[in-house]
Amino acid sequence: MELERNTDRFGLTGEMSDSTDMMTNAADCCTFAEMAFWYMESGAEHADEFAASYCAADDRLINSEYVTGQKYGWWDQYLHTAAVVYAERPFAIAICTDWGTRTPEDEANIQAVFDAVCALFTKD
Predict the structure, then answer these.
(1) pLDDT for 62-106, tens place per residue?
(2) What does DSSP say about strands 67-75 and 78-86: parallel, antiparallel, or unpaired?
(3) What is the spatial distance between Cα 36 and Cα 68, in angstroms, rounded to a whole number?
């Protein structure tokens, strides 16, 4: 039995080639977040399923009063996150670090960056 790739199942066709094949950068992370946002808004067959999964993760690197879809992980041992924030005006944010671990201090620092950016994008 051949497994269906998520890109096939969810219809993701965007190209993530902003950087070289050797690294992921903030532009790549924002490209991912933008692709996720537009797909969730597309009305495609699996868009609602994708949105529910993306926005309901139990293990979150950032917390927000807004519905937030996020993906975090490590690329070459560097902690990063890419998120779509459904504020009054939705926006994407990518935070890339050179941290190889996920400590409470790292989480607090990433949350502080997120809170500062969120404040800029949610002012009236």
Answers:
(1) 889 999 988 887 767 778 888 889 888 888 888 888 887 788 998
(2) antiparallel
(3) 12
Q: Is 12 exposed, middle or buried (0-12, 13-18, 19+ CB in 10 A)?
A: middle
**Which residues, including other chains, have CB under 8 Å from residue 68's CB and lie 6 or more apart?**
55, 60, 62, 83, 84, 85, 86
pLDDT digits (tens, 9 = 90+) for 15-73: 545 444 556 677 777 888 888 888 888 999 999 998 898 888 777 888 899 999 888 87
**Percentages of the chain per state (helix, strand, coil), in multiples of 5:** 40, 20, 45
Whole-angstrom distance between the N-terminal and C-terminal Cα of the chain?
53
| Contact present, 82 and 70 (Cβ < 8 Å) | yes
Which residues share a beta bridge with 50?
Answer: none
Give CA–CA dist 101/87, Å, rounded: 29
